[in-house]
Amino acid sequence: MADRSLPPLNALRAFEAAARLGSVSRAAAELHVTHGAVSRQVRLLEDDLGVALFVREGRGLRLTEAGGRLRDAAGAAFGQIQATVRTLRRGSEPGTRVIGCPGSLLARWMIPRLDRLQRDLPELKLHLSPHEGEFDPGLPGLDAALLVGAPPWPASWRVHTLAPERIGPVVDPRHPAFERLSRQPMEALLHEELLHTASRPQAWPQWARHHGLDPGQLRLGTGFEHLYYLLEAAVAGLGVAIAPQPLVAADLAAGRLAAPWGFIDTGARWCLCTRAEPDPQIERLAVWLGGQFAEIA
């Protein structure tokens, strides 16, 4: 009889997340465990297999040849499990559409609008699934993905463009430096320690280049693994953050945040992406979402 033994599944899960995200810290955040817990699970897996899966390079990770092979196999296996689970959950609620979207967008933009969505499209049943990182072109287990992106798109996708992506610096009006900064040109931000996120490392440099400023002069202060935590830190008055306009629109309207220097167009777009076959329910959702984004512009 063939040996069907497997390494510890917790160790495989930790490795797959670290390999996919390229970071132990990001894997820990996704799995809701500590950095040390993921590191221990990866070492356990390496000991069990008798091969190195990562080469540590400074603070980063590089997969070995063996690590790349296991990443591909584990990623495919976990992806198939996730797709099957989503299908089973959807099967228990006939007609439900499963929509994947970044967790920060789900928490700060979609959830506050669910009541309105249910009133406007009462026949539409949704299951919202948080998703971090790139979407698989096959959208396994999903009916659509709500995301920020730009062409080229997978050939198998039907892309509904909803709105341009706009980002800009935001700060709590109660922040000690707010009065001083709000009266100065945007160059003043080069002298401030700026809040930033590992999930969007290009945001501050992109903003600086747009305004003809040298990104090398930016002073990055406290960093956060996810955009959601960054925005919570900004609302808590910890400093100046950079944010997508839709995710802070409610905070701006309520006076919890201010955007003295406005927002810039990044060239990317908010989109609802589906498989190529038209779905009337998704088409109606796309029109509704586009209207919601238009209210913010």
From TrEMBL:
Residues 7-64 form the HTH lysR-type domain. Keywords: DNA-binding, Transcription, Transcription regulation. PROSITE patterns: HTH_LYSR (PS50931). InterPro entries: LysR-type_TF_proteobact-type, LysR_HTH_N, LysR_subst-bd, WH-like_DNA-bd_sf, WH_DNA-bd_sf. Pfam families: HTH_1, LysR_substrate. It comes from the Bacteria. SUPFAM superfamilies: Periplasmic binding protein-like II, Winged helix' DNA-binding domain. GO terms for biological process: DNA-templated transcription. One of its GO terms (molecular function) is sequence-specific DNA binding. Belongs to the LysR transcriptional regulatory family. This is LysR family transcriptional regulator.
